[in-house]
Specification:
Layout: H1 6-16, H2 21-28, H3 32-45, H4 56-71
Helix pairs in contact: 1-3, 1-4, 2-3
Amino acid sequence: MNRLTDRENQVLSLLAQGLANRAIADRLGMTERTAETHVSRIFWKLDLPDDSTVHRRVHAALAHERALVRED
């Protein structure tokens, strides 16, 4: 996940825990709109398509988990 900023990695970690944008925003002390922007950028950087056949939050969470496994 070295393409992501530190803040994006924080957001992704919370997203991977199943938190919604509002909960991510509350946890990190930002607006919900800012959380949405971070999530959108994460999807873009992870090259997750914006179509109805892919649940991008799940794929982003899986990418986060794979990155954690590689770090061990």
